[in-house]
Amino acid sequence: MEQKRNPRISIVTVTFNCASVIEENIQSIIKESDVEAIIVDNNSQDNTKQIIEPYLNERVKLIANNTNKGFTEGNNLGIKAAKGQYILFLNPDASLIPGVIHKLADYLDENLQFGAVVPSLLFPDGSAQNYTRRFPTPAALWVESFVPQKYWNAFPCYRKFTCQHLDFSKPREVEQPAGAAILFRNQWLLDEYYFNYVSDVDLCKTIIKDGFSIVQIPHLHFVHHQSKGGTENKALRTILDLDNYHGMRYYFRKHGQNYYAIIYTILFTVSLFTRWIIAPLMNKSEQDQRWFKFKMFLLNKDIKQLYV
């Protein structure tokens, strides 16, 4: 009997209340040959799992968690189950354009110095997204977290962070591409200290520390809805913000950037406290939310238990 060959690419998608987008994601995947889809559901409370179930077969697999294990552990469960030479992290609100995934894999086949390759992302209307970043600095993160968006580009640190000075008309080495779609060699796991955010940034840092580069290809595209992956709920957004703050502080310390960790902690502590001080101008709900954020950041509490 001929031995069954492993797929070339394993696509790992972590879901949590993604009923509005997951079918489009799956339908784009099953059109591709030589791939498997591993969907890890973090105990969705909508009908995400019911939408997935009719598609399950040898090429589409579901790992159904009975608790919310987060983006990081969810992806690691997918990687451990994967049989492919390459892993594609694909957000549930992202979908493939036919043939592109194998062109990305071909690029890694032909360019052994790269550990990961990413497409450029498009909104469903065909307009371009720019989620490519340099590795984070405290100043750039502060701008993004506390300055009104219309003023972000007034800060040189933010323009540099968001790569606005780079020419993306040709393949370009990058540091921190969008985690919504990243294809990499099947030799890394994520650091499970992170729950949802920052683990993709940490992965990119690890790939580069291990001697590889990461490349973004401008003419190869995936489609990506923005913030349609189960994170639109306002209460959940508060917890996700704290998750991001907590993860970034750990990221700086882990990678020997202790000075950055100190500056980051001071900037965010002062800013969160200031926002709470002016909270009496807001309604009671906003006051409570701002106090909660300040307290949790100051105490550096593990926020995993806050997820449901």
- Low-confidence spans: none
What is the tally of helical segments? 10
What distance separates the N and C termini? Answer: 47 Å
The proportion of residues forming helix, as a percent range, comes to 25-40%
Structural description of this entry:
The protein has 3 domains: 181 residues, Alpha-Beta Complex (Spore Coat Polysaccharide Biosynthesis Protein SpsA, Chain A), CATH 3.90.550.10; 28 residues, no CATH class; 73 residues, no CATH class. Strand 1, helix 1 and strand 2 form a beta-alpha-beta unit. The mean pLDDT is 92. Helix content is 39%, strand content 19%. Strands 1, 2, 3, 4, 5, 6, 7, 8 and 9 form a 9-stranded mixed β-sheet that branches.
SSE blueprint and pairings:
Blueprint: E1 9-15, H1 22-29, E2 35-42, H2 48-52, E3 60-65, H3 70-81, E4 86-90, E5 94-95, H4 100-110, E6 114-122, H5 138-146, H6 156-161, E7 172-174, E8 181-185, H7 199-209, E9 213-224, H8 234-254, H9 258-277, H10 284-299
Parallel strand pairs: 1-2, 1-4, 2-3, 6-9
Antiparallel strand pairs: 4-8, 5-9, 6-8, 7-9
